[in-house]
Every structure is written in C-alpha cells, then in structure tokens.
C-alpha cells in the first residue's frame, strides 16, 4: 500500500471563539486529485492554508510524507515538529490563490524565477530555463517580457500556476482559482488545471465551486460542512448520488 502524501487526522481549528474545524480527517495519495466542496465559511480555505503552513491547527495531526508538521507543547501551543521538515514541505507544496498576487513591478519571467533562485538556490539561468518551460506549458511562452498589468486576469492566473510549477511541487493546492475571473476567462484557466491533472504526477487539492469541472478532473470529491468531512467518494457517487440531506441541499444551488 502506498503511503498517503498528505494526512489530516482529527484536525481542530479555532479562531479565538470561532470553531471552524471540529474533527477533520482526510488522506490524499500521491498523484491523487481531490476537490473540496462545501458551503461558504465551512473551512475549505483554512484546510488549504494549514497544509501550506500559513495556519496552524489547534489540535490533531497534519502529516506530510509520513512526518508531522506540528507538535503540541505542554501548554497546548502548536510548534513546528521539525523546522527542516517544515521548510521542505513549504517548497514541496505549491499554491494558487483566488487572487494571483503577481509582483506588479516584475516581468512575467521574473515573477517565476524569484522563488527558485531564492528558495531553491538555482542559478538565474537554471531558473529561467525552468520558468520558460512552465510558461510555455500554460500557453504563455510569448509573454515572458511583459508585466502583469499587460495581461488579462486569466493569463495572470496562468502565470501564477506556472510560478508554482517552477518549484516542481509534489502537491499543488488551488483555492478557488477562477472565482476572481470574468466568466469568459474561467475556461482557459480550468483547461490548464485539467491538463496538469491528467499528467498524473502531482497530487492536487482543489477548492472549487465549478461542479462540472470538479466532476471531470477529480479522483475524489470531499464535501465538508460544520467543521467535518460529511461525504467523500468518486465524483459520480458524491455529485450524482449524495447520501446526506446536507449535501443534497448544497448541490441544489448548482442545478
Ligand atoms: P471557506 O473557504 O469554506 O469559505 P474559510 O476557511 O475561509 O471558509 O473560513 C472559515 C471560517 O473561519 C469563516 O467563518 C471565516 O470567517 C473564519 N476565518 C478564516 N480565517 C480567519 C482568520 N484569520 N481570523 C479569524 N477568522 C477566520
């Protein structure tokens, strides 16, 4: 049996008085494409941010490649289990946000070479070769010398995807990658993500409200509500044959 690349075990997460996750458990296998769906405020972004180490859980285990990210200190405070592992995870996990967050004063190429140079220690030339390869992959090989403002929102989001891919992550996280885009630009971004999913060499966790897209690309769909996983399974099981009223009601909105 292969070891899951990512495991959430009994995750609790509160922001002050607000309890967002009560008991969230999920394993993701290497190469698996998992879409997380659920009502607004149910904690989808928080799950992604915890895996990106941008948020700490309040309890439970987040295990990446067999190693825990955090350990509980005596006073209930979560601290890094191993700083070295945490740094490795940060460079092995790529993230694409709702808003593209490109550096406006840098060319498209430089936007994609900053992290490999400063985090991975690649030479400028190596980083540029990788960046151009990834920009070509997302169909933007001719935009290397442009600035973000000269690109459409869809193109900027494709740059953000290329920028994450340059790091050669083992896991890619997408947090509603098309929700900030005009409707006519959504398709080109989804097509790039679908392409990546079909290559099958990376695990992907997607938070999305694009149900048709989730149906097409996902190996598994996870529905969360009230701070826990309510249902999960193949797209045909979860989206076409929901078992709980909660999921049935949620899916009604997309019909
Ligand atoms: P979703 O992505 O499912 O819409 P989120 O994970 O963004 O949900 O948020 C879950 C809940 O946690 C929301 O009620 C949100 O307001 C709250 N929340 C998220 N981040 C913070 C934060 N940094 N501080 C306080 N509350 C937060």
| Overall geometric form | globular
Computed Rg? 18 Å
Q: How would you characterize the largest beta sheet?
A: 6 strands, mixed
Number of helices: 9
Bound heterogens, unique: adenosine-5'-diphosphate
Class derived from helix and strand content: alpha/beta
Q: Terminal Cα separation, in Å?
A: 38 Å
Strand count: 12
Strand arrangement, largest sheet?
8-9-10-3-11-12
Molecular structure report:
InterPro entries: AAA+_ATPase, ABC_ATPase_HisP-typ, ABC_transporter-like_ATP-bd, ABC_transporter-like_CS, Ectoine_EhuA, MetN_ABC_transporter-like, P-loop_NTPase. GO terms for molecular function: ATP binding. Keywords: Amino-acid transport, ATP-binding, Cell membrane, Membrane, Nucleotide-binding, Transport. By secondary structure, the chain is of the alpha/beta class. The chain is built from nine helices and twelve strands. The protein has helices at 44-51, 83-92, 108-118, 124-137, 153-165, 183-199, 211-217, 235-240, 245-252; strands at 6-15, 18-28, 33-37, 59-64, 67-68, 70-72, 78-80, 93-96, 171-175, 203-207, 220-225, 228-233. The strands form three sheets. It has a six-stranded mixed sheet, with helices on both faces. Strands 2-1-4-5 form a four-stranded antiparallel sheet, covered by helices on one side. It has a two-stranded antiparallel sheet with strand order 6-7. A hairpin with a 2-residue loop joins strand 11 (220-225) and strand 12 (228-233). The longest helix is centred in the C-terminal third of the chain and has 17 residues, at 183-199. The radius of gyration is 18 Å and the shape is globular. The model has no long low-confidence stretch (mean pLDDT 93). Bound molecules: adenosine-5'-diphosphate. Adenosine-5'-diphosphate is lined by residues 15, 18, 20, 38, 40-46.
